[in-house]
Write a structure and sequence with these properties.
Number of helices: 6
Helix content: 25-40%
Shape: globular
Structural class: alpha+beta
CATH topology of the largest domain: Lipocalin
Number of domains: 2
Radius of gyration: 21 Å
CATH architecture of the largest domain: Beta Barrel
Order of helices and strands: HHHEEEEEEEEHEHH
CATH class of the largest domain: Mainly Beta
Largest sheet: 9 strands, antiparallel
Distance between the termini: 13 Å
Number of strands: 9
CATH superfamily of the largest domain: Calycin beta-barrel core domain
Length: about 230
């Protein structure tokens, strides 16, 4: 029985070490993963944020994980943004989980926040994110591969217009990136797009920091078993 426990602990520790590979290995893994993601199967139609008041949103289809892959302009000090849209409302509010890396003061800190918006099936949501009044409009989405978000950050005459692009895939193929650029050129200049970091090597800092604690726990348990 003791041998089985020791073997299990060694296996878990070995897996944790694999999860926390140095960046040179993680970069390679991320590059290989790019070839495995799906294509943007539904073309994004030409649009103008100013000309669209929002679209009808189906929550059951919008629910799930989304990754912010690009935005204009780069006014937020965040990277590695992942949004989790719930399947159900809470008190008629849409509570979105945000997982991201904060780059405030040139740091790289894992962070989590829950943002809540009164539900609107018109695709227009107002609320507050990180202490800033915001208004977001889903300008276009097929619910399954992409969502184009137009937004206004701030208030009282100091409003910043923003555009965000969400995709279901965390890592994009070169073909997907070119499709996004071509579609965005119908609205603005694709050269203005700021591409967010989404590679595992850069975005899994919270996993690596937790990894040290897991390895330490494994080592302590192994020592305790051997001395028993």
């Amino acid at each position: 029985m003791e041998n089985k426990v020791v073997f299990t602990l060694l296996l878990l520790c070995g897996m944790q070490q694999a999860w926390s590979l140095p960046s040179e290995f993680a970069d390679t893994a991320a590059t290989e993963l790019v070839t495995e993601v799906t294509d943007l199967t539904t073309p994004m139609p030409a649009f103008s944020c100013a000309a669209r008041p929002g679209i009808t949103v189906e929550l059951d289809k919008l629910a799930g994980d989304w990754f912010e892959v690009a935005r204009v302009p780069n006014v937020e000090q965040t990277q590695c943004l992942k949004y989790v849209v719930p399947k159900e409302l809470k008190d008629n509010k849409l509570e979105i989980q945000m997982h991201f890396i904060s780059t405030v003061n040139d740091k790289w800190d894992p962070a989590h926040e829950t943002v809540s918006f009164p539900w609107s099936d018109t695709g227009i949501f107002t609320g507050e994110v990180q202490g800033t009044p915001v208004k977001y409009m889903i300008a276009d989405t097929d619910h399954s591969t992409y969502a184009l978000i137009c937004g206004e950050l701030g208030s009282a005459g100091r409003v910043q217009q923003v555009v965000k692009l969400w995709t279901r895939d965390r890592l994009l193929t070169d073909q997907q990136i070119e499709l996004i650029k071509n579609r965005y050129n119908t609205v603005g200049n694709a050269e203005d797009l700021f591409w967010l970091e989404q590679r595992d090597a850069k975005c899994s800092g919270f996993m690596c920091s937790a990894g040290s604690a897991v390895i330490a726990l494994c080592s302590a348990l192994l020592l305790a078993l051997r001395s028993a």
